[in-house]
Amino acid sequence: xxxxxxxxxxxxxxxxxxxxxxxxxxxxxxxxxxxxxxxxxxxxxxxxxxxxxxxxxxxxxxxxxxxxxxxxxxxxxxxxxxxxxxxxxxxxxxxxxxxxxxxxxxxxxxxxxxxxxxxxxxxxxxxxxxxxxxxxxxxxxxxxxxxxxxxxxxxxxxxxxxxxxxxxxxxxxxxxxxxxxxxxxxxxxxxxxxxxx
Length: 197
Description:
There is one protein chain. By secondary structure, the protein is an all-alpha fold. It has helices at residues 12-53, 63-75, 95-107, 111-137, 144-160, 162-165, 172-191. The radius of gyration is 24 Å and the shape is elongated. Mean pLDDT is 77; it is low at 1-9.
């Protein structure tokens, strides 16, 4: 056979040999470079996150609003009529606000720090769940190390996206964690259905 084979590689014995030898080498090199970039970006973000955790001021424009919403939720003044000044709009249910407020009160933490810790914990949970989903999405016939490597890389992507991974007072991180949990829990529940009574 001359020219290119059906799968697009050079034809003949030399082409098939190159495919068998070079393809795994290039694939391994690309995966190793991608993993190194992900680890570097995640480590950089971890350093920034550690610095922000104890930063005494708002790390971004929405922290103050969310912090006040948390205080209103805990005091019972949230979700009130908008005729009272200052009027705060609550876009989401109070899951994040309650978690951050309860952590602050239970652990004796400053409220801004507790909010950032809840956000960081939710981001870690979302990253873990993305890794679990990636691991479970790969064929069971794939090598265990390949499935684990892909799961770790997929989870690290959650930290590379700086606005996603920053530990700041924001309810969007809990939303992401809950959204990541839904397909994971659905897959697990369909794999192990409840016995009928």
